Amino acid sequence: MTNSLEQPTTILKGVGEETAENLIAMGIYNIDDLLQYLPFRYDDVRLRDLADVSHDEKITVEGKVHSEPSVMYYGRKKNRITIHLLVDRYLIKVTFFNRAYLKGQLSPQDVITVTGKWDKHRQTITGQDIKIGPQSQSADYEPVYPVKSPITVKALRRYIIQAFNEYGDEVEETLPFHLLKQYKLPAKKEALRIMHFPHSPDDVKQARRRFVYEEFLYFQLKMQAFRKLEREQSKGVSQHYDLNKIKNFISSLPFQLTNAQKKVVNEICADLKSPIRMNRLLQGDVGSGKTAVAAISLFASVTAGYQGALMVPTEILAEQHFQSLKNLLSQTDVNIELLTSSVKGKRRKDILERLKKAEIHILIGTHALIQDDVDFQKLGLVITDEQHRFGVEQRRILREKGESPDVLFMTATPIPRTLAITVFGEMDVSIIDEMPSGRKTIETHWAKHNMLDRILDFVEKELSKGRQAYIICPLIEESDKLDFQNAIDAYDLLSNYFQGKFKIGLMHGRLPASEKEEIMREFSENHIQLLVSTTVVEVGVNVPNATVMIVYDAERFGLSQLHQLRGRVGRGSEQSYCILLADPKTDIGKERMRIMTETNDGFVLSERDLELRGPGDFFGKKQSGLPEFRVADMVHDYRALETARNDAIKLIEQKEFWNDIEYSHMRKYLHDSGALSGEKLD
Ligand code: ADP
Ligand code: MG
Hints:
By secondary structure, this protein is an alpha/beta fold. Helix content is about 40%, strand content about 20%. The two termini are about 20 Å apart.
């Protein structure tokens, strides 16, 4: 960057120390920042025929003052000035509040330009802005910038105009010429001019394209540089697994792997064997068979002489995974153990000792796995299930428990591709995009609360056939009031309703872990037929005989969560049903219910969820780790994001990128952002 762009904003006329401070509070430190500060929208200030303007619309008109303006005083120090204005053939009124001084500046026959809100019925503009004289020719669209008081949009506009006139020529190009040409993007200087002084919305679109692409490209360059660095510097181990044993194990499974499962097993095994450390995200819809993939991967690692760990977010899930892995691995000589916070005392000590001696090959557990005293002898593979529930920090701790174990993150919440390549841009992604055959589609219905009677009839019919059902109620913690929506109340009501016929269970987060497990066990052994629960069963629980899922107040849940809940049924060979009880008040709520009844495809749902909620909300605020883009929008500009990602991958691999002057801006950016830490340039 040339020196003059690095000068403080005080070199501008009208910007003193105080204003400069206020600009700094908006992130504007120097002239360059000011030039790069972009509008978030544009006001259409073209002159318009009043006949075309609708009520309450903001407009700008030019007209002739028709008669002496009148001022009315009221209250303490308040006043209103009314100007009769002749606009084309219309005589209208324009009012301004507390601007009595205008009276002295306006005389009949003066031409003025007024901006304000049009009241069609009263034929009045409530004025916001006034300029004495005709509308200037050039400004058709006025940029509106985000500002922080006391800086006003008007003042900022003035500074930007001045900065652009005096220093605009010194703006440097930050994209290489061949990319500008390839995508027909305007040069930086031109694009900035358009953003600040546009002639048409189309111009702005073109200029915006450039900034979106640039922003994504720089972001992806950072991700890819980081990935390259990780791969080159944090050497993993080559795990020489026993292919024959793996094959035998796979053929011992009670089912044939789907093609999708085979594909991802191959991807994972290739990572295990490679000396580069695996950093892979495994996505697969609920019921797609990730557990089997996890079992095979862990087994492979064990045949190579390593230990494996599987970390899950809840005790129930840990217990279930433990059971299913133990079953799957029962034909082998692999030792597998469960470690949760309810494993205490001597048993815990014993497990830790055997773990250190590598007598335990696979350890399954909750957060208990990442405590300090948990030491593996030779940890080779770490798998986390439902990874988005674990913070980045926890993932790191687990990873550091081994020399440099391979890491596989599994998630049943399909993450829209756009988000996956953004948030997990430095990861490899495997997708199980096929369901085991023979599954019936779950029938999903949306019902109003007043249809509860009919629904209970239906539940009774299913239970009489020997099936089981879930009724999910919103969190018990959420309200102290015991209304029906509350799990306990629902439990009481249903116990009464089905008294003497079926056994009802109650499950919620406040129960002690041992009790939760007991209830889950009773449910999976069909001692309980109807389980009333809060969303603690949301993740992973597997009871194939359950065929009915009823979600109370379904509008309170996001699409992904509803999909997770629905995934608790349809796990066996019988037809299953999901009934969403909801009276949504908002359009978004209604839309959600509609989407749920229309698709069973988790990826489609997650894309829609992202559209409805926006990226910030998708993961929940705390763990989102989403980058903030200035201009770009991950949802709407996802094509540009993919293009940028592909370009970044290519660029990083080219010699020219690390040498040519065209890329010096990019290299400097990578350097400054820390993506190259430890690595020297040139
Ligand atoms: P996920 O963890 O992806 O939700 P699971 O691994 O729990 O799915 O699998 C769901 C059910 O499907 C389990 O009962 C499992 O035994 C079964 N399953 C897994 N893979 C297959 C397959 N290839 N063919 C048939 N059934 C399968
Ligand atoms: Mg699972």
